Amino acid sequence: MFDKGDRVVYPNHGAGTIVDVEVKEILGEEKKYYIMELPIGEMRVMIPVHKVEEIGIRDVIDEEEAENVFHLLKGEKSKMSQNWNRRYRANMEKLKTGDIYEVVEVVRNLTIRDMEKGLSTGEKKMLSNARKILISELVLAKDMSEEKVVEKIDNILENNPNVNQDED
Predict the structure, then answer these.
(1) pLDDT band for position 167 (50/70/90)?
(2) pLDDT (tens digit per residue) in 2-19
(3) Which residues contact 137 (CB under 8 A, 6 or more apart)?
(4) Which helix (H) or strand (E) holds 94?
(5) Do 73 and 157 form a contact (C-beta atoms < 8 A)?
(6) Domains in the chain, please, with CATH?
(7) DSSP class of 83
(8) How far is it, in rounded angstroms, from Cα 91 to Cα 85?
């Protein structure tokens, strides 16, 4: 599976580094856990080794894929429901997959929508969470500081030529 030092992504939490593998006794049963440290927010997460596949833990993308992610940020907003509730559920499903391309789509789409029309409180929170997930993986994939990644993402999104286009 994974070893100490591996960089992995935990869907809905973001990317981090496995800093240890520990055996814990919980309810009288010994189980193995990966201890993952996230670069943003100094959070530590315990991941049950036996549930890695079920949870969807995966390796961090490589540098080439990171460039694809930055390129996708420049793209057009995908078609989204006008109903905020449906849009929220669809975006939540994308985030749950843990797929970086789904996450970048949520960040791009919600950022563009925010610039054009504003977001509900729930969508603002979702955008903030999606950005953290995206940033944490790009920090590890590109070996860049959090500040540099945030600056690059913001620069791309602020200069996205697809903002303010009419809805189809």
Answers:
(1) very low
(2) 999 999 999 988 999 999
(3) 9, 14, 15, 60, 61, 66, 100, 103
(4) helix 84-97
(5) yes
(6) 7-59 (2.40.10.170), 63-158 (1.20.58.1290)
(7) S
(8) 10
| Averaged pLDDT of the chain | 91
| 86 CB-near residues (< 8 Å, 6+ apart) | none
The answer for residues whose C-beta is within 8 angstroms of residue 23's C-beta and 6 or more apart is 30, 31, 32, 33
Across residues 79-86, what is the average pLDDT?
A: 85
What letters, b where the CB count within 10 A reaches 16 and e where it falls short, cover 115-139? eeeebeeebeebbebbbbbbbbbbb
Tens of pLDDT, residue by residue over 116-126, are 888 999 999 99
